[in-house]
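dude i think i finally got it to work??
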Amino acid sequence: MNNLSSSNGLSAPPTKPLRFGVIGLGWVSQHCHLPSMRMLKARGWPIEKVVVCDRVDARVQNATALWPDAEFERDPIALLERPDLDGVLILTHPDSSPGLLRQAIQRRKTVFVEKPVAPTRDEIRSCATLARNHQVKVQVGYNRRHQPLASEYFQLLKGLGAGFHVKVRFWRAQRREPGFFDDTLVHCLDFLSQQMGELEVKGIQIWPASLDTMALDQGWRVDLAAVHSSLLTAEVDIRPAVGRDLESYTAVGQKRSITLQNPHLAAADGPAALTLYREGKEQVLSCVRMNANDIEGRCLHSGFLHQMAEFSDLCAGVRAVPTCGLGEAEDALRLRDAIAAMVRKISEAGHPNGFPDNRPKVG
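look at this
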């Protein structure tokens, strides 16, 4: 079942021609941002020029296969110097992004930068100050905010009353990289902040690493609460290697609950779904199932298409401010840093080799 309109909630295309530069052509660029640009152009959006930049030749070849008319610059500063570009997408590692972002702001380019923007809050604050001084618009790539089902989910939240609790399951099939928790958890934190306002971390529980997971913890549970209301709470269960990809948000209120399930771009199969539960009955409001080859469907239902549409409107002057800017990016890192401090406190207390109930509870 799918009750989304055929336009999928996109605004009307701007009339101003759009010329974009893209710095960084890794996985997210090739599977999310460039396909979303291509989808907008196919829908009549006036994307006139795309200039790509990466120092890895294989990535450039893949990107130009997606956009055969793309121009190429080897040097990112040379791309930023071009007067014919309205907006620049910085899709690089967060260690590199702040320097490129500052260079783009100084040249008064409208900028899209992938999350988390920078390793530290201080670097984000520095970029935000520079953007204000130069009156430059900066959009940050937290794509969950732009999912077509998210706006309907937020409307349903209003029917839960003054208080509700959100249970998040953020599971991945088989991730091993040491930075998994830092890189992935911020997605949940940003999306929960959009639902509940400013949040504070109340506690954390850790399922420790085992022989199978090596140095990477098996999972974390993070407890959060809204600063302005003790009646709004959340818990995030995040795990790197459980054999399946799942991201769901279940909001539990008085006499009813709502579940939003997000598709995962790298999964073999998975739906975008919104379900309402009340009076013991399940009502599937929307369910769109995609396979791994349906890149366009995943870009649409994961929010990348609408995110790119918003950036296009920013570049065209149709939109004054982004849905997610540097202030929101800094707040996600504030929560990430508070969680990291609790993890360190547990680590300093010693990790018992037992079940999670044997671990110290901080909060």
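The first strand starts at residue 18 and ends at 23.
im so relieved honestly
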